Amino acid sequence: MKTYIGLLLALLSTQIALGQEICGTDYFLEQQILNNPSLQRDFENQTLINIGASNMHTGSRDIKIIPVVFHIFHDNEIGNISYEQVLSAVDMLNEDFRRTNSDTGNTRAIFAPYAVDSEIEFRLAQIDPDGSCTNGVNRINDPNLSYDAGQNVKPESYWPSSQYFNIWVVNLSLI
Q: Which residue of 1, 21, 55, 164 has the lowest C-beta tally within 10 Å?
């Protein structure tokens, strides 16, 4: 599972904006690289290593299912994206990871030799950490946190990362 983390971060940083013009992941990654330029090289190298490692597996492979939970922070419905937008984001993830998206021909040359179906599929979680049924969406009405894509939203709504892929959605405020 860890071999897919680098690839996952790379794709998420460029693909999931959920109807917003800018993804907070891109912004925070850019800030980290500005503060420490060597991270760019390390990030690209680790991504290539992870992609190569995932391609070296031999034999029959089963599709890996990853349960996803969206933590949507909103301000009295401002920024409370629809369930259809969540489903669209999951579809986009699956198209990218299964390499069925329409823009596969635009793969950068450096990644082209490694661009394959990762045999990973994301599905909205159906059971929460307490064993209760869920639709994979956790909505939090908190005007104080809904505009902050920083680390302080994560402790407010987090499911164990060993069992779920957590995605946090907040209102865009880069000022």
A: 21
